[in-house]
Amino acid sequence: MVSAVIVWGTWGLLRDSVRLSLDAVPPAIDPQAVRAHLERSPGVSAVHDLHIWAMSTTETALTCHLVMPIGHPGDAFIKELCDDLQHRFGIGHSTVQIEVGDAGACQLEPEHTV
Question: Structural domain of residue 33, as residue ranges?
């Protein structure tokens, strides 16, 4: 009986620990909605290498490559995008790489395609 109470009481902690160890997308975040939001950003023609994971039970991180054929939009665009990801999705740590050029392939890693 005591074991059952302990398992029942700690089930959420065990579930969160497994998700953290697997670098899973937090359940409250829809990765397709994040991708669609990034793709709708001005000047973005493609998004690839999108990764979202929990850094802890309260902090979420994101990395992605944005293909922008017209060129790098500047630091203000990156700051606004990161602030928007925090506000809309609760993603507090965003790393965004801008790629200028063809939307069909990653400029730094040619084996990655969109």
Answer: 25-114
